[in-house]
Specification:
With 150 residues, the chain is an alpha+beta fold. It has 3 helices and 9 strands. The strands form 2 sheets. Strands 1, 2, 3, 4, 7 and 8 form a 6-stranded antiparallel sheet that branches. A 3-stranded antiparallel sheet has the order 5-6-9.
């Protein structure tokens, strides 16, 4: 009986972690083959038959802080990663070379690029691609409201 309760708690915790990753406003996720990852979310800016999204490598929960800078009137967002997130991103890029990665902001892909080599970033650029000024400000405002700092 006790093992059923523990199994139920573990299942609920893993479902909660998956939901938390899905609701993250900022997600850096690998682009994977849909055939080898059944049930994975399709990447909407690519052909739905060929490209899906893997689990997030980094989200805004991995930021120590988020900076909102201005360059030519447009906001630029960059997130400073925790040391654990820096190492996780590095390990991921070592094994994901020459394959695509996507940046999703508020559930929408804003940028896709090919990982060229290992990266051990202190800061990750969040704005750019198809992210509008209003969306960038909205994401930054939410991050600060949730206790993040600039």
């Amino acid at each position: 009986m006790r093992s059923w309760i523990i199994a139920g708690l573990l299942l609920a915790a893993s479902a909660g972690a998956a939901l938390a990753a899905d609701t993250a406003a900022i997600q850096f996720r690998p682009v994977v083959d849909c055939d080898t990852h059944p049930g994975a979310e399709h990447l909407s800016i690519y052909s739905p038959q060929a490209h899906c999204l893997g689990e997030p490598v980094v989200t805004e929960r991995d930021f120590v802080r988020l900076e909102r800078l201005r360059l030519g009137g447009s906001p630029i967002l960059r997130g400073e990663l925790t040391e654990e997130a820096q190492l996780r991103f590095y390990e991921f890029t070592v094994h994901h070379r020459f394959r695509p990665m996507a940046l999703l902001v508020q559930g929408r892909p804003t940028e896709v690029w090919v990982v060229r080599g290992p990266s051990y970033p202190v800061w990750l650029l969040v704005s750019g691609g198809y992210l509008s000024d209003a969306e960038a400000n909205q994401v930054a405002d939410k991050f600060y409201a949730d206790g993040g700092r600039d």
